[in-house]
């Protein structure tokens, strides 16, 4: 995640300075060894340090002189590293080699000891990304096939749908080689999202082809007519999703750009596949469709429209009552900006609990201040040591001595603390890596350093990175949501040639988005911010299609009959198609949520699954009520509406 912060972020600049100035880096892993003497702990320290990719192993001997009895030393300092015969080591794992290095550490420490930290989280996610994507796909494809078999009248048609979209998903995954690298979040989410969002295009085309086969003898002519008829609906559907994903690429936090670019490619490839490859495939094998024809497996949905319209007033009142609280609540949700906590069912999750039970929470933070003024540095360190939540501070002035000039000592004694230009101060804190307490402490430490050195200092560490991430993504949220709404509004304006219809459609889907995103606030649970940001865009872009499908049909029928009759007929005819689309997207979401141990992917899945269901309910209950209630306004604000007039 750090790689996706913008170049001008404070922690990104700090990382570059420290890489240039110091060999060592910020500790990103902790290991706890049970039941060892001080000598055995020192042996473990040497063994950890000898693993390729492990650097800067810090233990008790770096904080105090262990040649003197430890009973004489400050007990708080001792217990930060050695408590009840348990030793806790902090060290850094080389970026890019997290999987290999953590595996080697596990081999060394065995099952009974514990490891935790940012590097281990990264290794765990990288291992799981591919296997979990395959697992999700293995669960998902049978469910999608069942939904498609129930919704079509041929056993082979679902294979055509999945082949057309499957080909575009594979090509999209292949073209990632030209990007050089992609995030494992993108790897986990993009293929499945592309499948779910663009399957509609294939359904639109083949349903249309099936209709024309009954009217036209020549399959080729039927396909030409089907392509002509379904192109506007497919193009409108693809455009809303396309522009929604384009909005993600404008994020300053570049994970949005990574995922957005992948999904934009995916939508374009799916559109081309459905309009070029699927017609060719269908015309080659249409006889298979005829041979595998079966009676509809589900009863036809008649008079649903009648029942829905009886609920129009309660639907309107209920949604309008929920709207303001949902909008306010979704803006007050507690967010997680990092990867979130590992589930306790995993080794990584249970190890975190073991270490925290023994030693409490621990987060490392580093300050880089200008080298030279030892007296000022000593004052700063004393100031930092008094702060709440700071367990201990490691610096030259309190581990060696402010009285000994560093140039008099061997470089091995000073290299951890001094470079050519900077002095490094390491703080061990007892806060979480993020949250109000952690972020409050960061601000406090930064203000303290500023009072001594002005702007001439740097801070870094996992919690500092997350603090920067929070500041970056909160600005992104406003930009992305605005861009999504504006671009989709323009697409709707062009599609319907109306001012009021885009407003009604956006209100319908945005209401579903707000209700969905307000649930964590009312259930008092935190939400992974990246999941929130992506879903607020994806849900709007992907589910507005349901509204387009219903409204397009209603608009045509309204030219031939009164509003109430037109909407009832449209609901009866289109509810099945909308239900198929919503059930596929919802299944995708809930399966991602169930199969992924990555809290970001799981969060996206849960929000997407719930969002698709809410959008379906809103389009079937709230949208028809709005179209009928504002019928006269729609007619006046739509170009060439040509609505039916009762004599």
UniProtKB/TrEMBL annotation:
Keywords: Cell membrane, Membrane, Transmembrane, Transmembrane helix. It is found in: Cell membrane. The chain crosses the membrane at residues 134-152, 159-179, 191-209, 230-251, 263-286, 479-496, 529-551, 575-595, 607-630. InterPro entries: MMPL_dom, Mycobact_MmpL, SSD. GO terms for cellular component: plasma membrane. SUPFAM superfamilies: Multidrug efflux transporter AcrB transmembrane domain (SSF82866). PROSITE patterns: SSD. PANTHER family: MEMBRANE PROTEIN MJ1562-RELATED, MEMBRANE PROTEIN YDFJ. This is SSD domain-containing protein.
